[in-house]
Amino acid sequence: MARRLAWPLRPLPDGRGEVWRWHLVALAELPAARAALRSRLGNAGYPPDAEDSSSEELVLAFDELASNALRHGETPVVATVIAGSGGWLLDVSDRAPHAMPAPVVDRDPAYGGMGLQLVARLAVEHGWYVDTGAKHVWACLPSVEDHASVPA
């Protein structure tokens, strides 16, 4: 029998910074949303850098959480990135508050479904909560400045 790994039920941390938001209703919108996020990161001084992958890790976490919400939640999905001085706070909400995030365990990665584990590994903190009929799944990811402090 496969063991279930819980995605922790926690409130969203206090995030202060520039807010970037996308309203999504279909998986087909994700490539444009990823491109827009990359553009905003570049404009904020976080261009893709071969020596520091934190910007691409944020884009990957954004894609994983947003695609999970679109596949397993209910639309509309709202993906929010708060660009703070200490890193990024990523919050993705959908209209399925009854369906908690459920990372799979003991499954061959070739079958997919490993996105929550990946995001948890990239994040310094992660969790989920329900507010006004929406489920919010969130992760705090380090930026270039504090990337070295992430536990392995």
Automatic annotation (TrEMBL):
UniProt keyword list: Kinase, Serine/threonine-protein kinase, Transferase
Keyword ATP-binding among record annotations: no
Annotated transmembrane regions: none
InterPro entries, sorted: Anti-sigma-factor_SerPK, HATPase_C_sf, HATPase_dom
Record flagged with keyword Kinase: yes
One family name in Pfam for this protein: HATPase_c_2
Molecular function GO labels: protein serine/threonine kinase activity
Histidine kinase/HSP90-like ATPase domain location: 27-128
Name of the protein in its database record: Histidine kinase-like ATPase domain-containing protein
Organism whose genome encodes this protein: Blastococcus aggregatus
